[in-house]
Specification:
CATH topology of the largest domain: Translation Initiation Factor IF3
Strand content: 25-35%
Shape: elongated
Strand order of the largest sheet: 2-1-4-3
Distance between the termini: 71 Å
Radius of gyration: 31 Å
Helix content: 40-55%
CATH class of the largest domain: Alpha Beta
Number of domains: 2
Order of helices and strands: HEEHEEHEHEHEE
Number of helices: 5
CATH architecture of the largest domain: 2-Layer Sandwich
CATH superfamily of the largest domain: Translation initiation factor 3 (IF-3), C-terminal domain
Largest sheet: 4 strands, mixed
């Protein structure tokens, strides 16, 4: 009796353990959740079985011990396929994960300069910028003006032009130098390779 009860308990735990996971994110209507009265059915082997009533389609999927999954709900009549829904969902999540992995996130890095920057500091900041551009990130270069330096904003523009020349063929000026309050900003983007 104890082994029969534990087997039954194990069965229900397995059954209800997976159900919330499947029901948590319904990506498609399955079996009795399909609202249409008539559907176009595709068999488990990929052959079209034709247009039929929903009850007949569910009966066919039950005979094959699979699920009836609505894959094209917007078509008239909706297209359903007889398949294993758990496997379908697993494959779909796997494809989405691969797409997220391939997607490249571009960050906007920031480099700050002063009008009276020394040559060594300038070269260090330029090397950091080249490294950011090589990683595929955009770089926002800011020249800060202090005190009476605001009277000579052309020095900041010259500094930014020299900085863009230092980046050479690695960068494209996405946004020209623009004065914004006490800062002059320029945005560099990595040059796209062919």
């Amino acid at each position: 009796m104890q082994s029969g009860f534990s087997a039954l308990l194990y069965f229900f735990v397995r059954l209800f353990w997976r159900c919330p996971l499947i029901a948590a994110k319904p990506t498609a209507s399955i079996n009795e959740d399909i609202k249409a009265t008539e559907v176009r059915v595709i068999g488990a082997d990929g052959n079209q079985l034709g247009v039929m009533k929903i009850a007949e389609a569910i009966r066919l999927s039950n005979e094959a011990e699979l699920d009836l999954v609505e894959i094209a709900p917007d078509s008239v009549p909706p297209v359903c396929k007889i398949m294993d829904y758990g496997k379908y969902r697993f494959e779909k999540e796997k494809r989405e994960k691969e797409q997220r992995k391939k997607r490249q996130i571009i960050e906007l890095k920031e480099i700050q300069l002063k009008c009276r920057i020394d040559t060594h500091d300038f070269n260090t900041k330029l090397n950091h910028t080249l490294k950011f551009l090589a990683q595929g990130n955009k770089v926002k270069v800011i020249v800060k003006f202090f005190g009476r330096e605001m009277a000579h904003t052309e020095l900041g523009a010259q500094l930014l032009d020299r900085f863009a020349e230092g980046c050479g063929e690695n960068a494209v000026i996405e946004k020209k130098p623009l004065l914004d309050g006490r800062n002059m900003t320029m945005i560099l983007a990595p040059k796209k390779s062919k």
